[in-house]
Design brief:
heterodimer, B: Butyryl-Coa Dehydrogenase, subunit A, domain 1, Butyryl-CoA Dehydrogenase, subunit A, domain 2, 3 domains, four-stranded antiparallel β-sheet, globular
Chain lengths: 270, 384
Amino acid sequence: MDDLSAVVFDTAERLLGALHHGAGRWEDMTSAGQGRGWATIEEAGLPLALTAEEHGGLGLPLADGLELVQIAGRSPVPWPVVETMLANRFAAEDGRTLHEGPVTALGLLTADQRAFAALARAKQMAGALDAILSMTVAHVQERSQFGRPLAGFQAVQHQLAVLGGEVAAGRAAADHAIARIAEGATGDAATLPIGVARVRVGEAASRAAAIAHQLHGAIGYTREHRLHRYTTALWAWRDQFGTQTYWSRAVGRLVLARDAGDLWPMVTAA
Amino acid sequence: MSVLAFPAPVSRPQDEALRSEVRAFLSQALAGRTSLEKAESWNGFDRDFSRALGAKGWLGMTWPRAYGGHERTAFERYVVVEETLAAGAPVAAHWIADRQSGPTLLRYGSEAQKRAILPRIAAGECTFCIGMSEPDAGSDLAATRTRAERQADGSWRVNGTKLWTTYAHEADFMILFCRTSGTPADRHRGTSQLLVDMRATPGLTVRPIADLMGQHHFNEVHFEDAVIPADALLGTEGAGWAQVMGELAFERSGPERFLSSIQLLIELIAALRGSESDAAQAAVGRLFAHLVTLRHMSRGVAALLERGEDAAVHAAIVKDLGASFEQDLPDIARSLVDAEPDLASTDAFAAVLAYTTMAAPAFSLRGGTREILRGIIARQLGLR
């Protein structure tokens, strides 16, 4: 991580954290409030975080740019921060002008761009998973039932351990793919680790959301509790830029195209 | 929650050069083995193979040269371990010693113990068994009742029973976890480790326990007024608990925690190869994703160990996820391929499916039950 990245991470954590907590009910937000929020996101340079310096972007190294996406995943806000980062990166790649304002739909993408967007979503999901784990741990420590904190029940502890394992695995899968892409993998050599990341983090999202809701009890199922922002985002993200099924079949096809004896060499090369 | 971040593994050219060398050796050494024999890798006991591995310099790899080691990195050792397991090599004659007993001796052994035993382990000529579990203790190791009493001449008189002792009937040595003072109510206080010579200890008997396949890997080991010499104490008297916890970290950290079923995955892919079925492609893609992710995490544990950091919780996470992956495999495989599982079948898939189905229940028991691991993870998350 270079110095610029550290500053950007710090700014993003504070800014997105404040916007996340201050946004109240997203649907109640006025257009003026919408505008002010986006202006602060733009001032921090976040929409240009994945764009190269020569195209007017922040020029963060790839892994740092995607670390920022994970930070965005920790604090979902009612503005398309990550989508705009991606749109500007792709516009610069295609020689188009950068976008003014927020971008909600990415339009037609090349296969490589779609794979990169899928990878970014994986990292964003890792951030949301991390936040779900933190809030669930906090909840079971604060909430008491039958005269003791939920955290004291072994059944609860074990569910949390499963949640922790899923969060760790989803994040590891995303980081593994990023390392491969940063090394310059393209074509099938990129499809495989990105597919692995999306399949694994997607599965982690499904399991984590289920456990988090169970451990939060009914309060987590209400609109007023912010757990819904994470879980509904994860449910949507796991099927965007290629569904869970699409990516698992893409990986499976590549594996099944090779001799069974090649499995282990494929694993070590993936 | 930084405990949940696994460091990126470091891939160096020397590791990959070693990998090619190991693969070439294994493809020759294992050429005559059937798929079923490869599936039995964990339980395959072959002293000749272990000696051949030792002769290549691939045991005791990270230990000092003074003790027969090769002063190589944790990553180089990792490469050898994962390649041997992925290839289905018979590892039972060396790997308890290489993986945990040797490192424990290196850390706590006396100079004489280290000089006498470590070079033999590194040569693939010395087999260890683990003296931890007991009949009434199960996962509760602190409830251990086997007792060693100091005699007037300094030797130890040992009484008690150890259980589930894999390959005790073949082992040269056991590291015995026992109580040297107090009672089981004292929990971890007053416990010690003794180095037991399995071949020359009067009062020691080994009785077989058949597993559900009818195979003999487990044993009961009885100590009845067994006499163990004074110099058999390993480390510090009374510090057994701390020592044994360190030993378990070695046992939980490696690629063996997600490669036990890999032969079945290989046979599954062979059976499905060329399939256009959505279900087959999606299932294989999912399994591959789990395998690659587990390997990344496990190599992250190796990175932590190489940096000398505590990896106990990371290892617990890998072992818990790995055991679930390994145990899911037989059912997924049988849902995708219409073949009757049969150990005696000439069809490799049917035979390996039968074997792995019957072996799988042990995957979340050995080396720490799933519940114990989840307790460790929960504690790290601040819940206990």
